[in-house]
TrEMBL record:
Range of residues in the leader sequence: none
Keyword flag Ion transport: no
Keywords, ordered alphabetically: Iron, Iron-sulfur, Metal-binding
Origin superkingdom: Bacteria
PANTHER family referenced in this protein's UniProt entry, alphabetically: SUCCINATE DEHYDROGENASE, SUCCINATE DEHYDROGENASE IRON-SULFUR PROTEIN
Protein name from the UniProt record: Succinate dehydrogenase/fumarate reductase iron-sulfur subunit
KW Membrane (keyword) present: no
Domain 4Fe-4S ferredoxin-type: 149-179
Species in which this protein is naturally found: Nocardia aurantiaca
Gene Ontology MF, one: metal ion binding
Chain ranges of the 2Fe-2S ferredoxin-type domain: 1-102
One Pfam family cited in the UniProt record for this chain: Fer2_3
Annotated family: Belongs to the succinate dehydrogenase/fumarate reductase iron-sulfur protein family.
Amino acid sequence: MKLTLRIWRQRSSGDKGGLVDYRVEVSPDASFLEMLDVLNERLAGAGEEPIAFDHDCREGICGACSLVIDGAPHGPEQATTTCQLHMRKFSDGDTITVEPWRAKAFPVIKDLMVDRSAFDRIIQAGGYITAPAGTAPEAHSIPVPKPDADFAFQAAECIGCGACVAACPNGSAMLFTAAKVTHLGLLPQGQPERYSRVVDMVEAHDESGFGGCTNTGECTLACPKEIPQDVIGRLNHDFLRAARKPR
Ligand code: SF4
Ligand code: FES
């Protein structure tokens, strides 16, 4: 396949940045990131600066990859991470635009890499349980109703990639925050901090510069793990109950 890539290049967070065109030739079986590897090898060989982009597992589980491809976070295929996207989804001769996540709370570090430490701050505010360490208890000693276990498991599939933020017209991270609140708030081990957690995580969300949720639903459409908007309903429910509880 012969393709034209229009890639966002930006030397540093203070640089203005802009789109630069590159031509590449790649197999339809290559992944999107392998295609960038091919281009980077060529750039490095020619003594040019390779394109900076985030990646790690390349298996759709770590949440590191983060590209806006032709205007869509993680590209045109639904329920897929950038690393799991293959070039056969495109056509020979295509021009593909590649940009970083765009959100006030995710400033660009370089080229296609953004700073997602705001997500760490939300997790540090309450995305954990407090439990005595020691020998793991017998798995069935705390029964969990099946619907709760299933929904908690679904929410726990969030890989923290940030596509929901990049897709949201408000730059909101409510789907991410709500996935964590739902995952822990549904399980018995998450009950002691259930109400302080939701308040603290929403506070950290707002302080980090994410916008508010207005239920546009773009987040779920862009989410590679198809986290449903129901988690935001659960967050709102717990948040309102927390407001009536003494802290
Ligand atoms: S909710 Fe989905 S899109 Fe948002 S961070 Fe989690 S996995 Fe990524
Ligand atoms: S590189 Fe880990 S999810 Fe894409």
